[in-house]
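Q: Please design a sequence for this.
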């Protein structure tokens, strides 16, 4: 249909990028990127007349988006040759517009197009061997300046490699390492880096990507005081093993903050301020990290010894889900199981009869004392005291 519209307004129309890649891999993708050789706005306006879609125009970028039912999104752009004006790029006057558009993209597997105009419908436009690389499972840049043009591609290469279980090709790896070494990650805004890391963490097996980031020295260049040692790797493994359990039992985990919990151990005031500003981190994150750092060893010993739940309670009272994940990063095997049992008990133990009002009626006025008394009753219950709450209260008051 879009191809037919293209003919009607006299523009070649292509579907490009991730959609083509996923189509060839047989993977569903509801984000359709369209490139027209002509005015994208005009094309979008025209298409809108015939489609039950909402049109959003981005005048500044000369692009438009059509939102259809069922989550389908169609982005429309005008074919362009350069995002990034670079003197090192050879201006090949012979190149067709769509070829130039594809040439500015990240990897060969993302640089294919399929023509949609009825005359050529379904024609695969593949100038750079994308189809071959897709079949062989290779991540390859199109030219030597790809990572320099856009350093977030360093993280994208790792993400796609892991997502499809592909491999970063040798020259591409060399260029990637070079861009890292020359400090191009540092030249990129923290917001864009954070976004890419978050995307990596939304994928199926992020641990693999984190290990790859470490291998390429990317972590050091993003978090200057983080040394990805074998000890840290083990924590990361424990962390990722336990995130699904925490989400199931305690709700959503912000994976970015969970990973940062481990990365930011041993940060001092100054290095913390740096990353906080760069990645717009929440103020309290460092205190959460320090809390775990300070008490993890004690927790481990208590779990080994087999203390009652009331000993564990103060460490996890009111903490974030990411903090729970961080504690779990220190644990394995028996201790991990014990800690989880404590956590569930704490989650499920509540005072049923007695609350603040009840104590006020009993004549206790100080808020501080009320809090302390309630907590004492709770601790008793956590440790398996099955007596009536009132009975426990009497004992405490006595
Ligand atoms: N692209 C690029 N360089 C980037 C980001 C994007 O060249 N830094 C190009 C690629 O051709 C990519 C397309 O823009 O295919 C769309 O980008 P995006 O939607 O971010 O990625 P997808 O490839 O669609 O991947 P995903 O499945 O993760 O959405």
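A: Design:
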């Amino acid at each position: 249909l879009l191809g037919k519209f293209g003919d009607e307004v006299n523009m070649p129309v292509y579907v490009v990028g991730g959609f083509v890649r996923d189509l060839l891999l047989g993977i569903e993708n509801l984000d359709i990127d369209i490139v027209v050789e002509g005015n994208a706005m005009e094309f979008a306006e025209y298409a809108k007349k015939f489609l039950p879609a909402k049109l959003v125009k981005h005048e500044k970028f000369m692009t438009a988006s059509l939102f259809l039912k069922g989550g389908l999104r169609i982005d429309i752009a005008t074919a362009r040759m350069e995002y990034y004006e670079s003197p090192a790029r050879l201006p090949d006057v012979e190149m067709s517009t769509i070829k130039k558009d594809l040439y500015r993209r990240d990897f060969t597997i993302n640089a294919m197009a399929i023509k949609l105009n009825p005359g050529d419908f379904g024609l695969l436009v593949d100038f750079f061997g994308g189809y071959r690389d897709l079949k062989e499972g290779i991540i390859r840049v199109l030219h030597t300046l790809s990572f320099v043009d856009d350093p977030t591609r360093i993280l994208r290469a790792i993400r796609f490699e892991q997502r499809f279980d592909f491999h970063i090709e040798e020259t591409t790896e060399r260029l990637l390492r070079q861009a890292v070494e020359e400090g191009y990650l540092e030249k990129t805004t923290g917001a864009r880096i954070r976004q890419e890391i978050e995307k990596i963490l939304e994928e199926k097996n992020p641990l693999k990507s984190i290990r790859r980031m470490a291998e390429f020295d990317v972590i050091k260049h993003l978090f200057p005081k983080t040394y990805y040692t074998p000890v840290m790797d083990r924590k990361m493994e424990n962390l990722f093993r336990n995130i699904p359990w925490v989400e199931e039992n305690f709700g959503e985990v912000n994976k970015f903050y969970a990973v940062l919990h481990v990365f930011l151990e041993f940060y001092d005031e100054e290095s913390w301020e740096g990353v906080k500003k760069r990645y717009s981190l929440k103020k309290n994150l460092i205190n959460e990290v320090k809390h775990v750092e300070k008490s993890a060893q004690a927790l481990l010993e208590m779990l080994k010894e087999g203390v009652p739940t009331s000993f564990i309670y103060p460490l996890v009272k009111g903490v974030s889900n990411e903090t729970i994940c961080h504690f779990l990063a220190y644990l394995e095997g028996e201790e991990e199981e014990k800690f989880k049992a404590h956590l569930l008990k704490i989650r499920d133990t509540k005072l049923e009869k007695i609350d603040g009002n009840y104590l006020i009626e009993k004549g206790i006025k100080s808020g501080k004392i009320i809090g302390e008394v309630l907590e004492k009753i709770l601790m008793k219950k956590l440790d398996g005291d099955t007596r009536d709450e009132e009975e426990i209260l009497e004992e405490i008051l006595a």
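Q: Thanks. Anything notable?
A: The first helix runs from residue 2 to 8. Confidence is low (pLDDT under 50) at residues 82-95.
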